[in-house]
Amino acid sequence: MTLLDHLVIAPILLPLLAAILILTAYERTPHLKASINVTATVLQVVVGVLLVMQVDGQNGPSVYLLGNWAPPFSILLVADRIAALLVLLTAVLALAALLFSLARWQRAGTHFHPLFQLFLMGVSGAFLTGDLFNLFVFFEVMLAASYGLVFYPATEARVRAGLHYLVINLFASLLFLIGVALIYSVTGTLNMAHLATVVPALDPAQKPLLHAGAAVLAVAFLIKAGAWPLCFWLATTYAAAIAPVAAVLAIASKVGVYTLLRLWQLMFDGNEAFAGLCLLLGGLATVLFGTLCVLASQELGRLAGYSVLLSSGTVLAVIGTGSSTAIGAALFYLVSSTLALGAFWLLVELAERGRSAVADLLAVTQEAFGTAEESDLEEPEPVGVIIPATMALLGLSFIGCALLLAGMPPLSGFLGKYAMLAAVLGGDGSAVGVAGWSIVALLLLSGFASLIGFSRAGMRLFWPALPRTVPTVRVIEMAPIGLLLALCLAMMVGADRMMAFTQAAAAEVSQPVQYVEQVLATLPYGGGEGG
Amino acid sequence: MEIVLALAIGILTGSGIWLLLRPRTFQVIVGLALLSYAVNLFIVASGRLGGALAPVIDKAGEVPLDSYADPLPQALVLTAIVISFATTALLLVVLLTARGLSGTDHVDGREHRR
Fold first, then answer.
1. Residues of B in Cβ contact (< 8 Å) with A167
2. Range(s) of the domain holding residue B93
3. Domain limits, chain A
């Protein structure tokens, strides 16, 4: 067994080891803690890239047997294209958020670094696990770390929002357990690949119980994904959290989306019409709710929070159509919108720095009553206002984020949205149903609404009538935003390769035959009984 | 046996949900604790109610599987107990912090006037 065979477990072990190392470091050596954290996260990105290259180069997923027992009895990790891609996405997002936090947030409280690494471990584990119960364990690791991060550093608003987040997620975890217990009592297995072979062979009399279990499980994931009407906690919690935490939390809602897609395609082969309909309707309702909220939100933080809803709602609705091409396009959109959301959360904090509450209030009243314009006209206008370099950079990044999130050309958000619309409308000449048309209508409407929301926020932010102070922004805070936006740019330039990859990933997820066969045929190392 | 267990799970779940919907943080935490007990019992029940059967299979004797309990739900419930215990403890800390910061034990951090 070479070292590369162990690559699948590296995204879980690496953050765990880093967290332990950071915990053993002295509290008085913050630089040591920060450098361990940065090193581990950079390594995590490298591991992510290697993993993507590994699964892209081979036929079928990489399977890793923990404890070396033969499937279906073993607990195992499975990395296929979609899992590897999402692990990489998590690592990249985490790296950007971490670099941003180095400027000031890491010093605002204790235990930021270990919690950050444990969060990474939980998310990567949830993407890689091939076993329903371990999925629960990794979800809990992710959530426990995210509770700590959401409260970091504790203020009243953060604790209040975090309390709701905690209670809702604890309840969702209990639903998760009920679902797992129901599925186990019917099928007698928790291995996801084994479930795929057991479920079609079930006695029809037992199917209702299985469906009930799957539905309860799905509710737990829908809470995490923020589907309407289970999403009211999301924007408040994210807006209360500090910027780097909110940026990494953007991936947490995608974990819910991913597990829904994976389990639906594995257990029911994607042809359970009821599940598809629920995903589609839930996604559409989320998009609609997100659209209205984006139009209504006055604060930048909430605008960003509702953009998270829009993004996961869009992906849910398009996945609900069940076609492989649509899923591939949705994956492309998911990656691009998550990167853009991460950048936007970081940007929100920088932009808010130069604003005061009074200026905010005045801006709102100006919009409502239009009093400022007349008084401005009387003053002689200087010809050509000098825009400070900081504001220019912030403004450019803001435009980039807005274009990406609204799905306007020419950035990758548009390409993702266009591919989804093309897939839903179907190139094969088949009739487009009500579902297809409503997706098209809502996607276009939500893009238009976010464009309005973002332009309004941008005008208020960058063209204020009142003199404003230019925020002091350090290079290390601007660089992560640049990194994330540059990745989106790279996705736009290399769209054909990226789209080919996501389409291959979607084909793998939606035709899980190979996944199932390969997982179940994996032999323990050495061929023995293991132990 | 089945009816007793089913009733116990039902009563625990019902009380847990009712408490979860109450406005005081202490009621919410007790509600979550009751719910987690109900879920733990439910997981045990998913492995068949067998009375006093051993979950460890003896390799030597060829005994029918009917005389053994399913070990997996017991392993699952152990994990679930540990996790829900830990998160409840965490919630308790957060609850006290919220009480200290906002001066009220209302879940919204402020009292609602009637």
1. 20, 28, 32, 91, 107
2. 2-55+66-102
3. 3-358+388-518
Cis peptide before A471 (omega within 30 of 0): no
Cα–chain-centroid distance for residue A144?
A: 17
Q: Which of A150, A152, A169, A141 is nearest to A16 (CA)?
A: A141
pLDDT at A30 over 80: no
pLDDT of residue A402: 86
Is residue B60 domain-resident?
A: no
pLDDT value of residue A1: 61
Residue B114 maps to a domain:
no
pLDDT digits (tens, 9 = 90+) for A284-334: 999 999 999 888 888 888 888 888 888 989 999 888 887 888 889 999 999
CATH number at residue B14: 1.10.287
Q: Give me the percent of chain B exceeding a pLDDT of 90.
A: 30
Tokens found for residue A273: 């019409």
Residue B23 lies in a domain: yes
Chain A CB contacts of B80 below 8 Å: 177
What is the total count of domains within chain B?
1
**Nearest-CA neighbor of A19 among A41, A2, A4?**
A41
Please judge whether A159 and B98 are an interchain contact, meaning their C-beta atoms are less than 8 angstroms apart. yes
CA-CA-CA-CA torsion sign (A461, A335, A419, A226): negative
| Domain presence at residue B111 | no
Q: What share of chain A is helix, strand, coil (3-state, %, to 5)?
A: 80, 0, 20
A464-520: pLDDT as tens digits: 665 566 667 777 788 888 888 888 888 888 888 888 889 888 888 888 888 888 888
Contact in structure between A287 and A317 (CB atoms under 8 Å): yes
Candidate from A137, A174, A190 with C-beta closest to B39: A174
Give the pLDDT band (50/70/90) at residue A49.
very high
What Cα–Cα distance (Å) separates residue A486 from each residue in A144, A315, A469, A476? 32, 23, 28, 15
Q: How many CB pairs under 8 A join A and B?
A: 89
Contacts of B102 in chain A (CB under 8 A): 156, 159-160
